[in-house]
Structure formats: C-alpha cells, structure tokens
Amino acid sequence: MTNHYKWAAVLAAVVLLPLFAGASGTTNLNLSYTTVNIPGSTKTTLADINNGSIIVGFYTDASGVQHGFMFNRRVITTIDDPNGTNTECLGINSGGAIVGAYIGTISGKPQGFLYQDGVFTDVGPAGSIRSQAAGINDAGEIVGEFQDTSFKTHGFLLDGTTYQTLDVPGAIASSAYGINTKGLITVQWKDSSDNTHASLYNGSSYSTIDVPGATSSFVHHIDNASRIVFTWVDSGGMFHGAMLVATTYFTFNDPTGTGTYADGINDGGTIVGAFAQGPVTIEGYIAQRASTVSPDVLP
Hints:
Blueprint: E1 15-16, E2 26-28, E3 32-36, E4 43-49, E5 55-60, E6 66-72, E7 75-79, E8 84-92, E9 98-104, E10 110-116, E11 119-123, E12 130-136, E13 142-147, E14 153-159, E15 162-166, E16 173-179, E17 185-190, E18 196-201, E19 206-208, E20 216-222, E21 228-233, E22 239-245, E23 248-252, E24 259-265, E25 271-277, E26 281-288
Parallel strand pairs: 2-23
Antiparallel strand pairs: 1-3, 3-26, 4-5, 5-6, 6-7, 8-9, 9-10, 10-11, 12-13, 13-14, 14-15, 16-17, 17-18, 18-19, 20-21, 21-22, 22-23, 24-25, 25-26
C-alpha cells in the first residue's frame, strides 16, 4: 500500500541472538527477542512502540484484509479507519496518538490519518493525490509522505495546521518517517538509480546516514535520545536490522527468521519490527538488551 514493508497465536520463547558478521563499519548487537503474532492473523508487523510500551502495527487476516492494531498490557485493539480499508498503524507517541494510512473507499488510494481520543482525522497536504503519516512526536508534530499531481513523492512535516515539504536535495523521491521531541526527522529517499538512502533532517539541512556496507538503507523511527533504527539490505539482497547511536552503527538479526526489519524504538531502547520466515510468513518481534521481555506488554 505505502512504501512501508508489507510482510509478514502464540508467543515464541525468548532467545539470544548469536554474533554474526556485520556490515563494514558496524558493530554486532546482542538482543533478546520475543515473537509476536496477532491471533488469527496470517502476517503481523510491529511498527512502533511508545514509552508506555504500547505497540502499534498492522496485520493481515485470513481473508487477506489488512488491519491496524494497538496492544497495551495484553489488550489487543483493532484500529480500522472507517473511511476505507487496509489500515496500517505506523507511529504512536507517549500520549497515545496514532498515525498511519488506509486505502480510501472513494479514491482507492492511500490516505494518511491521525487517530486520537477515538477520532480519525485525515492527514496530508492539500492537493496531494495520496499520503501516508508515519511518525508523531510527543508535541503532536506529524511526518510522512505525499504524492503531488505530477506523481512525485515528497516528505512532509505537519506542525499544527501548517505543512512543510521535505525534499532531500538531488532525490527523485523523499519520504519522512520518524520525528523526536528535538524535531529531528528521519527521511528515506531515492537517487536517480532508484537506490534507497537514509538522511537525518535537523530543521535546516540533511545529513546522509546510510548503514555502512548497505546497498539500500530504509530509515525508520528515532527516539528522544536520537537513536535511530533502520532496515538495510546487504550485497546478497538479505534484509537486516540496524541502530545508529551517535556515530556508531549496531546491526542485528532475529535468529528465527530469514530477514529482519526494524521499525520502532522507544526511549528505553526497546525495538520492534518484523521478520520473515521464508518467502511468505511474516511475524512481529520485540527486542531488548535485557534477557527477558516483560509479559505484561505482550498480547
């Protein structure tokens, strides 16, 4: 639906990630993982986690329909925008405000949304033909992407009622993904060869933050300590997770999967995402440095 990954009930045991050969210029990171699947789903992706350990994401049901969800202390809530189908919940802030996208019933195209206090509000600049809201910080600032009438994709920042377009210089397409309380914004972008890169926008300039050795770097959420998570692709086409802390890149893989996708991170350093089990099955995960993950946050 959007440029976010569409991969892919019972919790698996927590396991410890063994060391593996990381990309050049990176450090391997040992994490403890817990597998998460929404009951009755065929695919589950965890997209973000806030400081209250509330997690949002999306799952696919047995009929092939995609639904957004939130779970909080074992309670799972399906979140479907009433104006369309195939909802994705992609970001959540500490106040519980959720952003994402759905397919509009009338337009048939992706439309960004904000879900707050039980109310859905469409998000996207005027005149856009499609949009996606991916990240929201504790001040309520929202970032995402939109497509203009020339079919070019741009990032955006929504501050109150004001939209700012975010375009990485030289990019053929840009998409903002995460924003923290400092106003730092992560941006994915494509070059003229259709390769995907990562940048960090500080309000005035863009700095490239590609994972060393990656052929493509998909940057996702950023926490309030400015730790950033990525999905990156190696020269063999395999997907891995990564985290940037200051100037050091840490790489990691869920050991039970064949590809790891990192999406969200909170201020406690808990990472959420998804991993592939072969070409079809997608399952969510929660990863921490601690040896266990509290069962209270799990469905």
